[in-house]
Amino acid sequence: MTASDTFELFNPGMAHAAGGITRSGQPGSYRCTATSGRANNPVTFVSFWSSAKFTSWLHNGRPNGAQNAGTTEDGAYTLTQQGIIDNTVTRNAGWRSAFTSEAE
User: 102 by DSSP, 3-state: which?
Assistant: First the structure.
């Protein structure tokens, strides 16, 4: 269950049959569940930036509750809108989990 999607981690493509996750509810009371028959399959329609947010979440000890900048936007990476637009985001010192970029 996720109350909000402050940093837009959910991609509507994930709700397709091959996507793996459906989201129901309204902002403030979203509920995400695995698509029927896909609970043990990878999720598709995940961007590199969403993967970077996930690794920051892991880096930060997998916190529960409301999202904030310290949940997904800072940790293994410091993610800013301008950094994403300019493609200048790099790993922070002391990172513990990371996804490789296309260049790597």
Answer: coil
Angle at CA 28, nearest 5°, toward 26 and 29?
60
Whether residues 63 and 14 share a domain: the answer is no
Q: What is the pTM of this model?
A: 0.70
pLDDT band for 93, please (50, 70, 90 cuts). Answer: very high
Q: Are 7 and 18 in contact (CB under 8 A)?
A: no
**How many domains does the chain divide into?**
2
Are both 54 and 36 inside the same structural domain? no
| For range 75-89, the mean pLDDT | 90
- Please indicate, yes or no, whether residues 68 and 99 belong to a single structural domain of this protein: yes
Which tokens sit at 69?
A: 């900048």
Q: Which domain holds residue 20?
A: 1-46
How far apart are alpha carbons 15 and 55 in whole angstroms?
Answer: 22
